[in-house]
Known about the structure:
Blueprint (H helix, E strand, L loop, with lengths): L4 E4 L3 H12 L4 E4 L3 H11 L5 E3 L3 H6 L6 E4 L5 H10 L8 E4 L5 H12 L4 E8 L1 H7 L2 E4 L3 H14 L18 H29 L5 H11 L7 H11 L9 H4 L9 H12 L4 H14 L1 H6 L13 H37 L5 H7 L10 H11 L10 H24 L4 H14 L5 H12 L3 E2 L6 E4 L7 E3 L1
Parallel strand pairs: 1-2, 1-4, 2-3, 4-5, 5-6
Antiparallel strand pairs: 6-7, 8-9, 9-10
Bound molecules: nicotinamide 8-bromo-adenine dinucleotide phosphate.
Nicotinamide 8-bromo-adenine dinucleotide phosphate (NBP) binds next to helix 1, helix 4 and helix 6.
Amino acid sequence: SSAQIGVTGLAVMGRNLARNFARNGFTVAVHNRTAAKARALVDEFGDEGEFVYTETAKDFVAALERPRRLVVMVKAGEPTDAVIKEFAPLLEPGDMIVDGGNAHFADTRRRERELRELGIHFVGTGVSGGEEGALNGPSIMPGGSAESYAALGPMLEKISAKAADGSPCTAHIGPDGAGHFVKMVHNGIEYADMQLIAEAYQLLREVAGYSPAEIADIFRTWNRGRLDSYLIEITAEVLAHVDAATGKPFVDVVADRAEQKGTGRWTVQIALDLGVPVSGIAEAVFARSVSGHTELRAASRDLAGPVAEPLSKEAAAAFADRVEQALYASKIVSYTQGFHEIAAGSAEYGWDIDLGAVASIWRGGCIIRAAFLDRIRAAYDARADLPSLLADEGFAREIGAAQDDWRAVLVAATQQGVPAPGFAAALAYYDALRAERLPAALTQGQRDYFGAHTYRRTDREGSFHTLWGGDRSEVEA
Ligand code: NBP
């Protein structure tokens, strides 16, 4: 038993994570259901560090020093349960099973509870950054017990990405499913970020009349400012890419149907359960869904729309500046909504999640890494009980400064018939929160009328009902 850590499940993610551990000086036992993959890993990358090839589950467990740290990187869902079922009987109290797959946090809570009874620490861990991140430093979001973090944290800190200030992009998120919950919301925010960028692109193309190559340059410029982020950077790369077979812009030869694996959808489903408005993330999930309804789209192609009016060169440049404002303002709203969901999950499940720490560990390694996250961390550092990111003075000032342009972009989008559901949902959220009065008062009246659901008054305590079918006098409910 010489390995400090073991990785089972050696597809792209597990293999790269195992190599990352080895490159950082840890001795890594490797195992895979199909043992040939473990063999191949050692044959191919054995010179990168210390690997211990193991063939059977028993050999694998025997190779690990105690308490054992066993990282599972298999397909989420049933395969994860199958692996737990295989390994749990071979482990001893104090050992750790670290699930680095994209598990649903409810599954993680169940697995943690079941394994806790055996004295085994189950550490549901969000890993972001794709295969590149797994190899060179991902953002890591471990849940599970504080005790398990004490034994595991230093290793994760070593293999994780580092933010610009050198701090590791990992921290103990909270008990049981907290890590997978935060990873889920990370992915939801990623969907929203991608959708907002996609809308900005579409508006620059169809309203301002820019080519993909020109838009790539605009994104490169934006990437030197406050929108500096991995997603903006790769957007410029994708837009500048030319298809070798046709010579056309790559974006023009890719089928316009976006796919999804499910974490964005989970983020919205859970938000509905928690009663948290994540309209920006929801619109992003729905936008992918709309794009995939080929028949619906074909059947709707002849619906009437406005005739587009091309902008002059000067007007196009001014419009691009406005789109940057709209994108930035909408991005603030997406993160406001996402962090609200994390705060709500934390309260519901008693996780006590440090929102500033979450922003901090997303600064490197993960898909949504951005300079912007430093600002979010600073906002929570200044005030840990910040009720909303929009309550932060700095963000409030910036979104206030952006609002005229944000509105102008949506006017143009509406007039020219270009869908911008992410921008629109974000602005509607902003305006709803600002509003002195919402039409919810009318909604309550309707509910009381047809269902006697009662309402509260602005001027006195208590619940009331109006006798709508009778003399319309009010009674206390
Ligand atoms: P996959 O999700 O494609 O899983 C393949 C691995 O699962 C193989 O090692 C396979 O073993 C193993 N496996 C399966 Br399938 N069923 C099994 C079973 N019943 N018992 C034991 N092993 C089983 O691999 P991946 O793309 O590397 O992702 C691994 C995890 O990381 C997933 O949960 C994924 O959601 C998550 N994740 C992926 C990314 C990414 O960018 N790809 C990013 C972040 C997180 P075999 O070789 O014997 O078939």
